[in-house]
Specification:
The chain is an alpha+beta fold and 261 residues long. Helix content is 26%, strand content 23%. Strand 11 and strand 12 (233-234) form a beta hairpin. The structure holds uracil.
Length: 261
């Protein structure tokens, strides 16, 4: 990170105030006076102002209810990014831990704690991710079995076993059928499979478009997807899409504990 950016984030003022501070010669890096705002800092560098060392970068943890339409990135030329949804008081160096597709909603953790992010995303640690989905087509007990066995979604390896729970398949299908029958009284017979099944699915990996590809592999299509939790961290029911809040200390500690971070 550039020295002037570091000083701004450490609360020493705006870019121009920090520039003046540097010009006055009171800033040292590893004991040496540095005047250049563009000086690059390494992780291990010690920065001091008038002899007083600045504390290490403050780690921040935010939970965002990602809305559909924005991208899980810090910069994007076309779309709004998830970091743009954070309030002005949030640090500028936060990044999303993993990605949700642009049309996926739900829990996204943003932090500047690279170590925790690495632990949460590591394929070795198998952190559970729980999603709610509406799926076009009838999801059956057979699908539950296939998901539990692991699916071939076109990657080198099958997916790890996933837990698929059917929340509301029959009811949705029946309601839709009844509505249709009201309109078209002449028809008779069994309900067609036009309903959207509602499911909850737990995966332990984070492959590209994983849930969409898992349903595709069994002939269904995800119509709506929302992440509900990641490890012990659960989407706050008080948030609405686009809303965010800092994690509590207990939430941060629980994530660290379960990942061994
Ligand atoms: N699986 C997907 O297909 N999309 C997501 O955004 C997350 C998991």
């Amino acid at each position: 990170m550039r020295l002037d950016k570091y000083l701004c984030e450490a609360g020493l003022g705006t870019r121009s105030q920090v520039k003046k501070l540097l010009k006055s010669g009171v800033v040292t890096v590893n004991g040496q006076t540095v005047l250049r705002p563009e000086e690059k800092l390494k992780e291990t560098d010690r920065v001091a102002v008038s002899g007083r060392e600045l504390s290490v970068a403050r780690l921040e943890y935010w939970m965002l209810y990602k809305p559909a339409g924005c991208v899980s990135a810090t910069e994007d030329a076309r779309f709004q990014t998830v970091t743009e949804l954070l309030p002005a008081e949030a640090r500028r160096d936060l990044f999303p831990v993993g990605r949700l597709d642009r049309d996926t909603e739900g829990l996204l953790l943003l932090t500047n704690d690279g170590k925790l992010a690495h632990f949460l995303l590591s394929p070795k640690r198998h952190v559970d991710k729980v999603y709610y989905a509406r799926v076009r087509g009838r999801v059956t007990k057979e699908h539950v079995k296939l998901f539990a066995e692991g699916l071939d979604i076109g990657d080198e390896k099958k997916t790890l076993p996933a837990v698929l729970e059917i929340l509301q398949e029959e009811e949705t299908a029946r309601v839709l059928w009844e509505r249709r029958e009201e309109k078209d009284t002449g028809s008779a017979g069994e309900p067609e499979e036009t309903g959207e099944s509602q499911v909850r699915i737990t995966i332990r990996e984070g492959r590209f478009h994983q849930i969409k590809r898992m349903f595709e592999a069994v002939g269904c299509e995800v119509a709506y997807l929302r992440r509900l939790s990641m490890g012990s961290l659960t989407l706050d029911e008080g948030l609405t899409p686009g809303g965010c809040r800092r994690l509590t200390e207990q939430e941060v500690e629980a994530l660290k504990e379960e990942t061994g971070c």
